[in-house]
Amino acid sequence: GKIWDNTNNKGTNKIFCFNAAITTPAEFPAYVGVDDNLSLTASANPSGTTGTYSWSKVSGPGNVTFSASNSANTNFSSDTPGMYKVKCEFLASGATSSYTVESGEIWVVGVEFFEHGTTTEISEAHVGTDGNSSTTKDGETKNKKKRC
């Protein structure tokens, strides 16, 4: 985004450029359970730039909730497993155009139990794209049981 600044000592306009980045989580893809919260933070650049934030869903199969959709810090949750992307729009104070940054993949996963599985396998497993299988940290494919 850009802001016209009329306050320089030569009486001419100059442009102040700004942008934003999603800084939490530190890495994508990010994983969160159904109806659990994933902390999201957006930061304006240069540091100290003030303005307004607006979080929204870009893609994903279910409903999405942001705990504070107009804040730099919010919690994301969804009621449906799947892959999601979100965006944060930042409008710097005095700007006429905004800057939008999109997240990487956010995977919402259901809590499932594996046949002969362990807590370690569950916490380090990846849900299969078919929704019915998973791969453990050792690459072993497991079929999921239904929720209890």
What does this structure look like?
By secondary structure, this protein is mostly beta strands. Helices cover 3% and strands 51% of the residues. The protein contains 1 helix and 15 strands, in the order E-E-E-E-E-E-E-E-E-E-E-E-H-E-E-E. It has one helix at residues 119-123; strands spanning 2-5, 14-17, 19-24, 30-33, 38-45, 51-59, 64-66, 73-78, 82-92, 99-102, 106-109, 113-114, 126-127, 133-135, 141-145. The strands form 4 sheets. Strands 4, 6, 9, 10 and 11 form a 5-stranded mixed beta sheet that branches. The radius of gyration is 20 Å and the shape is elongated. The termini are far apart. The model is unreliable at 2-11, 113-126, 128-133 and 141-148 (pLDDT under 50).
Looking at this protein, list some descriptive labels.
single chain; mainly beta; five-stranded mixed β-sheet; disordered N terminus
Entry summary:
With 148 residues, this protein is mostly beta strands. The protein has one helix spanning 119-123, and strands at residues 2-5, 14-17, 19-24, 30-33, 38-45, 51-59, 64-66, 73-78, 82-92, 99-102, 106-109, 113-114, 126-127, 133-135, 141-145. Strands 4, 6, 9, 10 and 11 form a five-stranded mixed beta sheet that branches.
